[in-house]
Each structure stands twice: as C-alpha cells, then as structure tokens.
Write a structure and sequence with these properties.
By secondary structure, the chain is an alpha/beta fold. The chain folds into two domains: about 10-155 and about 310-385, Periplasmic binding protein-like II (D-Maltodextrin-Binding Protein, domain 2); about 155-310 and about 390-430, D-Maltodextrin-Binding Protein, domain 2 (3-Layer(aba) Sandwich). Helix content is about 45%, strand content about 15%. It contains 19 helices and 14 strands. The protein has helices at about 10-25, 25-30, 50-65, 80-90, 105-110, 120-125, 160-165, 175-185, 210-220, 240-250, 270, 285-290, 320-335, 340-350, 355-360, 360-370, 375-380, 390-405, 415-430, and strands at about 40-45, 70-75, 100, 140, 145, 150-160, 200-205, 230, 230-235, 255-260, 275-280, 295-300, 310-315, 385. Strands 1, 2, 3, 6, 7, 10, 11, 12, 13 and 14 form a ten-stranded mixed beta sheet that branches. A two-stranded antiparallel ribbon has the order 4-5. It is globular and about 70 Å long.
C-alpha cells in the first residue's frame, strides 16, 4: 500500500481555502491560548442533530465549572465529509485543535501525517482503562499503539413496524437471510387496491458513501467475509458477492426500495409507512419516539454468523505541548467517565462506552423506558469495526462504488467487485 498522502494542486487549493475558513470560525478555536488562569483547549466536533449538540455543550460547561485549571471550547465544524478538508488544512497550517471528535477510521491518515499524539502512556496509568467497553478497544489501536479514546458508540440493526407486520400476517421476526427475503416480500403490498405497490418490505441505502458501506458491512461479516486479507484490501471475494447478491435479490423482487443517492440515513419512508423495515442505528431511537409511531428493533438476520457494525466517534489528541496535551487528556478522561457517558447516552440515544455507565441505575431506568436500546447493547459483543488503515477512505470508496453499481443493476456482484478491486489496486499501486 502507498504510505504517502498524495494531494493534487486543486486539492491543495481547497485545503488553503478551508484553512482560511478554519481561522474565520474562531481565532481562539484554531489557535488556543490561556484564558485568565486556565489552559484553554479546543475541541472540533460534528455532533448532530442540534439537540445532541446542546447536550454536549451542557456537559462541557459542567466540566469547565468543575475545576479551575482547564477551559474547553467546543466548536461545531460540520458533518464528517465537511470536516476532512478543514482537518487537513489545519494540520498543514500548524493550526489544529487540541481535540478532534471523529470516526476512528481517520486514525491511519492522522498517524501517517504525524498529527496526533500516541496515548499509550496516558492510557496505561489512567483509571478509565478498566472502564472502557472491550468491544471498542479495536477502534483505539493501530500497530499496537493507542491513538484515540471512545467518545460514544452505536451499531446497526433493523427497525421494523409491528403494525405492518401484523397486517401482513407475519408473526415471527426473520432470523436468517432467507427468512428476511420472504418476510420483505410479504410486506411488499398494494394496500389500496390500485394495482400499484405502495408499501415495500425494506429500505436500502443507495450511494458509494460511507453510510452505505457501514450498513452493508454486517452482511459481509455475517457471511464470514472481510475487506482485508493478510492486512491487504481484498474486495473481490465469494463472501462479498454473496452479501451483495442478497441486496440485489431484494431489489429485483421489488421487496426493497432504494434511497435517494447518499441519503440512506433518512427515515421519512419508514415513518410514513411506505417501508416496513430499515437498517439504522441507536441514534435513530429519539427521532422515532418523537414521531410517535409504532416501531421495534431486531438484530440483522444472519447468513453464517450474527454480526453488526460498531460505529460512533473517538477523541484524538493533536500534538501540541506537554501541558496542553495533559489538559486535553484530562477532558478526554471526563468524556469517558460514567458521569458523562450516562448523561450523554440517556439524552441522545448513543450507547455508553463506559461499563459502569452501562450497569448504572440511571441507565437501567432509561432502558426500561426505552427497551429497544437493549438490542443495541446486547449485540455490541457481536460487533466488528472498520479497519483503521490510512488507505481506508479509498478502500471504502471502491467498495461503495461496487455496492452502488450492483444496486443500480449496472453490474453483477462479481463484476462490480472485480472492477472495484482492480481500480483500488491501481490507486494504491498494489502489485500482484
């Protein structure tokens, strides 16, 4: 694999523009300084929806008021795809924040750029070491070192409408892929007798972006496949073809409808009853409750094994100086604490990454009031994480193109995967 980050002149110009935008966000946000007697550190984040950002700000304020040494400024810098140019521009311009909230798949690229601090020393002597959910350790590690700390977690399952299942005479939830196809077809109906289908079994994400890849990976893993073989990307496998064929079968039988391109996360069709099932995550629970609809959650039906994709975001500490890094770590420990995690989880729907929080009375009460969350908690042990390699963004894009081409029926699964692997090897200069 290529170990060099290649930037085109056009992209460099975008970075410079993004850097200027970064400076305009907040002078103190890009170049933190001491405020009064406190060390001021900044955290860039893309927490959404806005109601969740308010929860985060409340918790940041609580930290700032709890001691007289550190002041944390939390800055919203856009959604993940909007953040990348700003992050790279800040690194190039030596104006990175102290802390970054982002998906762990960015680890390899940040390590390659020598932008973030290795956390092994902090981690070894930290009391939170024994409190982090073991399922999340893979999101922190690369090449035997700790590079980030979990901020929040989620995983994916299938939301379903019990009333639509009952209307179709379905009494049992699907456990296997074959049962999923059968149930999805039963749920595909002309409900008003005009000979036009107005209710579909399942909603599938269309697009080559990370959301599509993230929601498809559990199917690949369930078939006992992976996207790496001996730490090298290998997309063209029988297991990948099998998982793609499942989605294609759902489309060809009219049991599924596709989202608008790159909008597979939208739940409007599910809420309106146009679809009876949708792949989504624990982040959607609060939204579903606000809509006042009937819904349930079930694990993703299996092929060979049960699997889900673990998501969420981690905190990265950028290299600054010892005092600033120590201050940033102290806040990171606070984020990982039982107190922070219980409040953030119960008020946003994200899963707590702290074991004590998961077992707390407050969280037990929340589960009792929101029983669907228990599905997500229990399947964390069956969850897998995406690789943290520097080249993961290119791997994901190639895989996303294969999924998109298959769902649009431009290629068979085998053709789409072969093309994706060939293009990836060319892009990464992999020689067979």
């Amino acid at each position: 694999m290529s170990g060099v980050l290649l930037l085109s002149p056009k992209f460099v110009m975008k970075l410079l523009v993004a850097f200027i935008l970064c400076l305009s966000l907040s002078l103190s946000g890009c170049s933190p300084s001491h405020t009064d007697s406190k060390i001021k550190i900044t955290m860039w984040q893309g927490v959404n929806p806005p109601t969740n950002r308010l929860v985060l700000q409340k918790l940041v304020d609580r930290f700032n008021q709890s001691q007289n040494e550190i002041f944390v400024e939390s800055l919203y810098v856009g959604q993940p795809d909007q953040q990348i140019p700003k992050i790279l521009a800040a690194v190039v311009g030596n104006a990175a924040p102290d802390l970054l909230w982002y998906n762990s798949t960015l680890t390899g690229r940040l390590v390659e750029l020598d932008a973030i601090r290795q956390l092994d020393d902090f981690w070894e002597r930290s009391p939170i070491k024994t409190e982090i959910d073991p399922a999340l350790i893979p999101t922190m590690e690369l090449d035997g070192h700790i590079w980030s700390i979990p901020f929040s977690a989620n995983n994916v399952a299938i939301f379903y409408r019990p009333s639509l299942f009952a209307a179709a005479g379905i009494k049992n939830l699907p456990q296997t892929w074959e049962e999923l196809k059968t149930v999805a077809l039963q749920l595909t109906r002309d409900t008003n007798g005009d000979r036009i289908i107005d209710q579909y079994g399942i909603f599938l994400p269309l697009g080559k972006g990370e959301f599509t890849v993230f929601t498809w990976l559990p199917f690949l893993w369930s078939a006992e496949g992976d996207i790496l073989t001996n730490q090298a990307p290998q997309l063209n496998t029988p297991q990948a073809a099998t998982a793609l064929q499942l989605w294609l079968d759902l489309i060809k039988s009219n049991a599924a409808i596709l989202s608008q391109p790159e909008r597979g996360y939208e739940e409007d069709n599910f809420v309106s009853g146009k679809v009876a099932m949708q792949i989504s995550g624990s982040w959607a629970l609060r939204y579903m409750n606000q809509k006042g609809i009937d819904f349930g959650v079930m694990p993703i039906p299996r092929d060979r094994i049960t699997a889900t994709a673990i998501g969420g975001e981690n905190l990265f500490l950028f290299k600054t100086n010892p005092s600033r890094e120590q201050a940033a770590w102290k806040f990171a420990e606070y984020v990982a604490s039982e107190q922070f995690q219980t409040t953030f989880a119960t008020e946003t729907g994200y899963l707590p990454i702290n074991l004590n929080s998961q077992k707390s009375d407050a969280y037990a009460k929340y589960i009792n009031e929101q029983p669907e969350i228990d599905i997500f908690i229990k399947q964390m042990s069956a969850g897998l994480t995406r690789p943290l390699l520097a080249d993961y963004p290119r791997i994901s894009e190639s895989l996303g193109r294969a999924i998109e081409a298959t769902l649009l029926q431009k290629n068979t699964p085998a053709e789409a995967l072969a093309s994706a692997q060939s293009n990836l090897e060319l892009a990464l200069n992999i020689k067979n």
